[in-house]
Amino acid sequence: VSDQKPLGCWSVKHGQILTCPVVCNFETCEYIAVHDDRVLRIWKNKDINLDKVFKATLSADVYRIHSLPNGGPVVLFKGGGVRTLDVLLEAPQQEIENVISDEVIKWSEAFMEGQQPVLIFATEKDGDFFVYIQKPKMKSLHKYKLEQQELSKPLSFTAYVKNQTITLLCLYSNDSVYKVLIPLQKNTEEEEQILSKSLLVNLSVSGSVLKGTSFVVLDKDHIAVLGSLDASGKKSKECLTIWNTKFQTLQTSKHLPLGTSGQLWCHEEKFFFTHGKVLTVIMYKCETSSLAAAVGKLKDSQAPDLSSFVNWNALGDEELVVSFQSQQPVALQPESKMTLRSKRSSVSKAGRLALKLKDASPAVLEVELKKLMSKAQMPDLHAIVGYVVTALINRCKVNPYYYPKDFLLEIVQTQDLSYSLCPDLMAVALEKKDVYLLQLCLQRFPDIPEEITYACLKVFLSMSENHLKNIDLDLDSVICYVDIELNNKEVKTEVVENGFSTKLEQNILDTKIPKEAPLATEGEFCPVGLRKAALLNAVLHSAYSETFLLPHLKNLPAKEAVLFLRYLYYLYMKCSEKINTTLPGTHSPTVNQIMDWMCLLLDAHFTVMVMLPEAKELLSSLHKFVRAQVRFYSELNKIEESLRELQRLNHQRDFQTYSIEVLELI
């Protein structure tokens, strides 16, 4: 999530539908999915095609699979039957009993109680709600009925187990959360019981009522609720809120203007929820609840510097100095104080520095920041540098005449930064057309969004060679192998293994920008200049996801798409000149990167390429070259077994000091 890169992607066939959430089997590191209600699929990271992975057709419809870290996956069927995965796989077509009749499952959860998996699920029938608890390994089943609440019904559930007791929390439509205690019974036969509930917290404060859609438990005294906050006479707004259940107080809230899906998850002290079209991750850390903290009466010495409850920075683009100065999250309710603490030491240090240097001159600002970065042993240095860069970029936005180019270059070159630490840095560099800074960011940042990668590519391709020739760039990725044409004279540098060429060192830096090579020499000479080639290599070096990059790549103008494809074809030819298909130099693209980008570009622009006369010979040359390589590797495949046999024979024979053998391949 921190790198914003999907690590794997799998698809079912057209017409098939995934009918419950996919889970991971922690014991075997496998993924488990169900499509079309009854078809079970199990695969690992290395698997690519779901059609070729393990498949089992079950005898009943699956509602959900729950995966437990120490207990293995547990499968809940729509009829209420429960099986552990290992038992189910022994006989996939085994009969599954129907535990419920005419009831619909609304929610389920699983946990470990000792060495036994426990599954709890809630059902609804004609306005009545029931709770079932099953221990599949002990074949134990208990059914309970929830006490009815007048004029309201449960909307969402969550539960946890402690001291042989399940605590079930229910969010009701009357804007309240109720608590139900269910002991884990030892006996297997017992009549249906009615569960009484007690009010945990009422979701209203200062005339505003929270219409919750989902919630999670943070600890024994705090819950987080996602929903719409309604105030009389005002438009409702979606919010994430934190409540202290011990003292019945709202601790903090955050307005979510882009809207959510209504789902909220919590894992390892992080919130996960969708905000607009993105997945937002927010860190939090609980501390012991106290009355003083709950009502915001902590002494100043204990008062948090920033985000003591939750680090809201993931949500906002507000200027850094403003958020430090306010010492509370932007858009935080005035009556809402915070009783949780995030990692804030680096934030407070950067905040004090930002306030101190808010009105400082550029020269003073850079001197102070260099002093800060010289402290190599300083804890959380990278986080502080990230805040510092954000502060500089915010100043650039306010003052368009201020742009500390050299200082930003120094920071990127000397600090181990990432895009997520300073997300506006590349946007400002694009605006300023600072191609050197963009090149360094593409080479060094592991988590650049595909939209920014495409924007860089478009800028690089659109810039004229004359403009680039006066710009300092990192040429290490092209200096050893680029062949260009100058006034119909060849200036060709041989690809040498040690990365050095005398002719190259003498001539290449003084070479004028070449004109585009004629189609007759397609692939022989580089179609772009040395500096533009170095910039394009930086784009090839950047990580991406095909799913997210392809829609942007389709917007690339046809002329620039053809030029980029010519350059990729040139690199492909260069790689094929060497047996190891490796280009010399630092940050040089690999053959896999080149091939992947060629396929992406052709996928995005194939129809246009076919229609363009100037691309006809390029596509023809590419087709012939690939076809020749396919034939060559096909011939190699024919003798693969013979070569393996020779290798086996060589291992078996005891050769003396000198030996000559003639072997005939038939």
Compose a concise summary of this entry.
The protein is α+β, with helices and mostly antiparallel strands and 666 residues long. The protein has 18 helices and 26 strands.
Assembly type: single chain
Count of DSSP-assigned helices:
18
Main β-sheet description: 5 strands, mixed
Number of strands: 26
Question: Helical proportion?
Answer: 25-40%
Strand order of the largest sheet: 8-9-10-11-15
**Which secondary-structure class do the elements indicate?**
alpha+beta
Runs with pLDDT <50, length 5+?
297-308, 316-348, 485-520
Distance between the terminal alpha carbons, to the nearest Å? 55 Å
Query: Based on CA inertia axes, which overall geometry fits?
Result: globular
Average predicted confidence as pLDDT: 78
Rg for CA atoms? 32 Å
Q: Which range does the strand content fall in?
A: 15-25%
Word description of this protein:
There is one protein chain. The protein is an alpha+beta fold and 666 residues long. Among the domains are: 353-446, no CATH class; 449-486 and 525-611, no CATH class. Helix content is 31%, strand content 25%. The protein has 18 helices and 26 strands. The strands form seven sheets. Strands 8-9-10-11-15 form a five-stranded mixed sheet, with no helix packed on it. It is found in: Nucleus, Nucleolus. Residues 361-665 form the Nucleolar protein 11 C-terminal domain. It holds the Pfam family Nol11_C.
